[in-house]
Amino acid sequence: QDINAYNGEQPAEQLPFPIIADKNRELAVKLGMLDPDELDKDGMPLTARVVFVFGPDKKLKLSILYPATTGRNFDEILRVVDSLQLTAYKKVATPVDWKPGDSVMVVPTLPDEEAKKLFPKGVFTKELPSGKKYLRYTPQP
């Protein structure tokens, strides 16, 4: 109820997302979720703000650990999930600061001829001082 009240919503018995109670911090210890720099009134480490994203294959795809004193950035989490979903099925990678709809990078293992077939909107390279053409981009498929 406190979580819903904090968000300005009516207190409810059920949250719209799963949450795990870990009163003895057993799971937090196993998953490395304790912040050794932030302690509670009893001198116990506070639980850090952790985000784990697992893929359909049940493998860990992302782990972000924020200090106990820092809130999570949900825009960044959603951006990463969009990237993970896109890159799992297309032969692309997302560059720094990528947002859905921006151009993406063609993975370096994909030959140029195959890239031209896979990305009919075109493949372009970033001009670099070395003259090498290894940074290939395409509109987001």
Automatic annotation (TrEMBL):
Q: Taxonomically, which superkingdom?
A: Eukaryota
Q: Ranges for the Peroxiredoxin C-terminal domain?
A: 83-121
What protein name does the entry list? PRDX6 protein
Q: Which gene encodes it?
A: Prdx6_0
Q: Name one GO biological process term.
A: cell redox homeostasis
State the GO CC annotations. cytosol; mitochondrion
- Organism source for this protein? Urocynchramus pylzowi
UniProt cross-references to PANTHER family, sorted A to Z: MCG48959-RELATED (PTHR43503), PEROXIREDOXIN-6 (PTHR43503:SF4)
Query: SUPFAM superfamilies under this entry?
Result: Thioredoxin-like
Q: Which UniProt keywords apply?
A: Antioxidant, Oxidoreductase, Peroxidase
Q: Which Pfam families match?
A: 1-cysPrx_C
Gene Ontology MF annotations: peroxiredoxin activity
